[in-house]
Amino acid sequence: PMDWRDHITSSPDVLAGKPAVRGTRLGVEFLLGLLAAGWTPEQILASYPGLTAEGLRAVFAFAAEVLQDEAVFALRPGAA
User: Fold this and answer.
1) Which of 29, 41, 60, 66 has its CA 20 to 30 A from that of 51?
2) Closest Cα partner for 55 from 30, 12, 16, 23?
């Protein structure tokens, strides 16, 4: 299994400390937003050559672990 810690970092000097892919200024939130907007992983990797496929997979692993550690989110009916 992938350890996202090898690829995701947080530094006060980069994106005000938000989690980003190591060696880039691409934030986890930004990349997830592209995917949510309909971008494919292939489109993202082609548009951001500094990003590797492994780095992009780490974004998913990071998000999955963060959500797993959080309390259950109550969604309003019809919000999902």
Assistant:
1) 66
2) 23
